[in-house]
Predict the 3D structure of the following.
Amino acid sequence: MSGTARFVTSGRVARLVTSGRDARLVTSSRDATKYHHYPYQPDKMSGTARLVTFGRVARLVTSGRVARFVTSGRVARLVTSGRDARLVTSSRDATKYHHYPYQPDRMSGTARFVTSGRVARFVTSGRVARLVTSGRDARLVTSSRDATKYHHYP
């Protein structure tokens, strides 16, 4: 695994909180019982993140302004709801969820999230992958001549 990524925060330190197979990206709060979902705010980008694998759980480990993104190593998807987003690990219902294979051995280059309306792009130094939303679901896809075939990132 190599490379770093910039992700969008509201200025606070964001973390990924898991509950079973689900994980939510949240910002720090004095009220630990109340989770504040992490909004896309490209004008307030800060912090760095490393993509790494550890077990079957997805979580975000923070250290100051630096966050380490720890995920399944298997499959995960990003679920959006307005400005909120959460990461959900693999499900047996493949017809309901569009999964993203996590392949740390193929990660490389730098990346950042860029939003434009309801479309968020994950821009890499190599290929450009788009985060396409549809209701509460979001798919991370790379540019391809075959628009009907989605290539999971990377």
Summary: Residues 4-142 form one domain. The two ends are 12 Å apart (CA to CA). DSSP finds no helices and 14 strands in the chain.
